[in-house]
Amino acid sequence: MEKSVIKFYGVGNEWGEFSNFFKAEILIDGETWPTTEHYFQAQKFPSQPEIQQKIRNFEEPGQAAKFSRKHSGLRSDWEQIKDGVMRDAEIVEASPTDSYWGNATRSDGSEGFNKLGRLLMEIREKLANEQQE
């Protein structure tokens, strides 16, 4: 059996929803971010909440990335922790119609189960635990 490979690059291309620039709000530690890119860039400045807020308010993820590259005060341990920043992000199958595998609104008005996202997060956690052993 041939192994399937999903290749993605850019929001407008096939599988673009895997891009950090894909516009889908995420909730991390009680805070909403417009994209994972906004969140990722803001984590470079943990002791500067005003900079994090500015990054969160950018309309486009590219603006957030460009701003953070030019701003001084990058945390000194960024190269050591940057992978972990993305490892903790919530994974959501943002389907507009599937309330079982995705998070589409259910008939009672509640949010979908997001089973696919939850399974992917379980697998991620299992792999991380195996790495630590």
From TrEMBL:
Residues 8-88 form the NADAR domain. Pfam families: NADAR. This is NADAR domain-containing protein. It comes from Rhizophagus irregularis.
